[in-house]
Amino acid sequence: MARFDVVVKWPLSSVSLLLLVFSFFSSSRGSVGSSLLEQREFDYFALALQWPGTFCQRTHHCCSQNGCCRPDPLTWFTIHGLWPNYDDGSWPSCCSRSEFDPKKVSSLLPVLEKYWPTLSCSSTSLCHGGKGLFWAHEWEKHGTCSKPIIQDEYSYFSKALDLYFKYNITDILNGAGYLATNADKYPLGDIVATIKKAVGATPLLVCKKGSVQELQICFYKDFKPRDCHVSSTTREDTSNSRNSCPRYVSLPTYAPLMLEDVNSAEAAVTWF
């Protein structure tokens, strides 16, 4: 009987050990979330903007959905996304299986196409497998984590657009003499001070080879401006303005590639 007892108890303890190990790894996953795990509510929003001139100078392939391929260069900041963040420098992501539905934002499409275009020919990865539109990526990865402040897809995109136009960084900088050009460089500190004066909070700038690539303005959950969080933990390709950008930065422009090499059927597709 003693040998029988040992044989029975050993598999049970093995199962318990496996469950313990699974529980440990599940609870200690990184900041990239899973819809299978409940994530705590975020602390603030970051409205992330892109400077097309920096991205589009690197365009080598043209396609109809790429904003860099439009006939006239984009000389204004475009939207990257509205991101829920944590104060510790991490962020939630992919918080539910709510898939992007273009019909739900159909009334916003003309504005999204102009001010929230993709700057690439590549489809972006989606939370639960496959590839899709840039907007689908932003909604599924970030928009689904905006609850309880933002409840649905339409509200996510419309709120991002509202903030974009209310705190129009392009107009703020143009009004202070900071224009899209390949001829001049501007003091980083002056750009930051100009935005802080107009918005009421310190932005976060990200640069690539001395050119502004991304700019974030941050908000409390009631959408009042706040200073952007700076920590040693960075998200995607971002870091704080001082470490990422030199003392003098540029806002470059570019000569758009045209669609001569794209077949007529693709060229007829509506801009995304």
Automatic annotation (TrEMBL):
Listed InterPro entries: Ribonuclease_T2_eukaryotic, RNase_T2-like, RNase_T2-like_sf, RNase_T2_His_AS_1, RNase_T2_His_AS_2
Highest rank taxon of the organism: Eukaryota
GO biological process: RNA catabolic process
GO molecular function, one term: RNA binding
Transmembrane segments: none
One term under GO cellular component: extracellular region
PROSITE patterns linked: RNASE_T2_1, RNASE_T2_2
Catalytic center residues: 80, 138, 142
Signal peptide: 1-30
Keywords: Disulfide bond, Endonuclease, Hydrolase, Lyase, Nuclease, Signal
PANTHER family: RIBONUCLEASE T2
Similarity-based family: Belongs to the RNase T2 family.
Name of this protein: Ribonuclease 2
Annotated organism of origin: Iris pallida
